[in-house]
Amino acid sequence: MRLRLPTQLAILGLATLLPGQGAAQEAACRLHGVGDYSRSVRVVGSDLYTHHGSGGVDYRCEDGLRIEADSAIVFEANNQVHLFGDVRFEDQGSQLSADSAFYFGADKQLRAWGNIRVRDHASDALITGQTLNYFRESAIREVDRLEVYDGNPHATVPPPPQPAAEPPAESDGPVAPYEIDAGHFILEGRRLFRARGDVIVVRDSLRTTGDTLVYDMERGLMTVTGNARVEQQDFVLTARSLTAEPDGRGDMVLARGDAQLAGENMLMVAPAIRVFLAGGAASRLIALRQVPPEEEAPDGLAGEVGLSPGDQARLRSLLQSEAAAALQGDEAPAQPSIATGAFNLWGDSVEVVAPGQVLDVVNAVGEARAETLANRAAADWEAPEIAAKDWIRGDTIVARFVPGEPETPSEPAETAEPATGPPPARLETLTASGTATSFYRLAPSDTLESADTTEAATQPALHYVAGDRITVFLEGGEVVQMDVEGQTVGYHLEPAPPSADSAAAGLDTAAVAPDTAALRRRGHPWT
After folding, report:
1. How many CB atoms lie under 10 A from the CB of residue 92?
2. 352 and 263 part of one domain
3. How far apart (Å, rounded) are the C-alpha atoms in residues 401 and 398?
């Protein structure tokens, strides 16, 4: 027989029937109110009851936990409550909703199903999914641990607040959150956010993918490992692992292990690459020969967020695994390289400055060398390997660019597609410093003056020079001028006709005078 009690009587009656909590439960929990129907059944052989309530149930604990639902069953024997319909849960750390849930008071554990929606109070992160496990802080658990999975889980995670830039940038405004999709989310200690299984992170115009993610929400440090990839409208960055963190007015992304950045007019390959972003666009790149080690968890992390020693060790192992893999091996790491439409460049460290993603300056430091690609003078010459390319070398190389000229549309203005961005920058100078050397192939000044078409007429002149500092000026990828500073040695070789003896064929070999400010080649408009 069901007994229907007035609401106020039901509240008073149930509150009286519930006994004091046992030592296993740290905070007493009880029905605070029942909106409509209630029934209590005594457990045989004990003073404990099972309570049924519907029409709106309010269940509360002394530690601040409050759970509301359409209906509930409270089991005093094992200190559990089963909740059904429009479940709403809130404690000091979280607020969540679900279709149904079980709360185990002795273990301070919540399990919930259906239309999960979790809001973390500390970070304001919002997580959705279909299944939830929430292990609350307790005598046997130093920090909270919340898991969400099933049903295409999604998380919206705001970055931590950063000090305002001085002066504020024109683009300053609301900071976009991270939108994250994955198979499984874990929020641990109100600080560490983890995701695994086909991770996708979208923020502004950046899209990052990988197998696993670890995000320190206090520091704003996010690491993605396993097939890590960042995509933006103008570039794609891949590596074994990617770490992103705030950097002044923007973000810094560090790609570790077999890093590669591909853009419309540039390809950068290096053991590690740093990308500095402003407004979602890459403004500066640094390619590194040595892979920086992964940052360990901060000192005292176990005490700060309550990770057990085992969990702390596992976290550090995860963060360091990719860097360790990249550093293993007997072979020395390859030099970073950059390939553009105008030249290829190598160095132990290579920096690209590209405000607005337009090339401005490229700096290569440490055994730097560059190869220019365009050379009409040697286009038809089958050269030996030693003379197959034009190059410049030095301890450092600086490549400077100037804005490119807009392309003239070949179609009428009304049918031509509008340009999608600024024209590619044009390489203007290459400057090598510190034991600088250069080699270029040039149109010959002697043998091509005749009208014949001998083999010699298709061979370029060869020009080699060494000095303390060499600056090469280019137009359209072709060398138009060269300045050499310091103690200088150089050779200029003119091709000889194939029928002539090389010793008497007019081979023009000229040593360049020391301390020459500018080299001038005969018959060439250098100044």
Report:
1. 13
2. no
3. 10
Q: What is the CA radius of gyration of the chain?
A: 35
Which residue is associated with the tokens 């009286």?
16
**What are the tens digits of pLDDT across the range 432-475?**
999 899 988 777 765 444 445 555 556 777 888 999 999 999 88
Phi-psi region of 467 (alpha: psi -120 to 50; beta: other; left: phi over 0): beta
DSSP element (H, E) containing 339:
strand 337-340
Q: Judge whether 451 and 487 are in contact, CB under 8 Å.
A: no
Domain of 267, in residue numbers: 156-163+174-296+309-323
Tell me: do 262 and 357 sit in the same domain: no
The amino acid at 66:
R
On the question of a cis peptide bond just before residue 167, with omega within 30 degrees of 0, the verdict is yes
For residue 10, the SS3 value is: helix
Q: What is the mean pLDDT of residues 195-215?
A: 93
Q: Where does residue 255 fall: left (phi above 0), alpha (psi -120 to 50 degrees), or beta otherwise?
A: beta
Look at residue 184 and give its three-state secondary structure: strand
CB proximity list for 348: less than 8 A, separation 6 or greater: 289, 335, 336, 365, 366, 367, 368
Angle CA 263–264–268, to nearest 5: 35
